[in-house]
Amino acid sequence: MAEYRGLIAGLSAAKALFPDAGDALRVHVRMDSKLVVEQMSGRWKIKHPDMKPLAARAAAILPPSSVTYEWIPRAQNKHADRLANEAMDAGRDGRTWEASASTAALDTPSARTASAAARPGAARRPGGGRRQGPCRTGGGPWRGGPRRALPDAGRAGAGAAY
Predict the structure, then answer these.
(1) Of 1, 69, 76, 110, which residue is 20 to 30 A from 8 by alpha carbon distance?
(2) Which ranges of 2-137 does DSSP label H, i.e. alpha helix?
(3) Residue 69 in contact with residue 33, Cβ under 8 Å?
(4) CB-based contacts of 115: which residues, under 8 Å, 6+ apart?
(5) Average confidence score pLDDT of the chain
(6) Which of 35, 30, 40 is nearest to 65 (CA)?
(7) Which residues contact 143 (CB under 8 A, 6 or more apart)?
(8) pTM, rounded to two decimals
(9) What is the pLDDT of residues 24-45, one digit of tens each?
């Protein structure tokens, strides 16, 4: 649902930026939501009843022939995601987000190293990716194990991330 709202905002902004373009306006949407890209491209049906009106609203902003869609894997969209999160955090806090004040670094090897060094214990595992094997906390209720509270250090790290 948030992806559709973001699409609606983006298409509306493009139309507002070029009000005199009319049918000549062409927009290329790049998103990390495969679902929205495939649905708006007409390749997948929209089955969820709450998404149908959002998709219709997005489709009504610009003529379908004016918009193309491209799926970007989430791993290749990290920088844009960080920028969006900064902007949403600023809005939540009543501030205006400005690109010049952004702390989101481009996803480069040096930026990943600096980010990991800034957060002790946050360095990537050898070989990258997630930890394999059973969850250390007992697996949580979905695996039949006990649900444990997040330790203070984890809570502080989560708070800093959001």
Answers:
(1) 76
(2) 2-17, 34-40, 51-61, 78-92, 109-118
(3) no
(4) 105, 122
(5) 75
(6) 40
(7) 134, 135
(8) 0.58
(9) 899 999 999 999 999 999 999 9
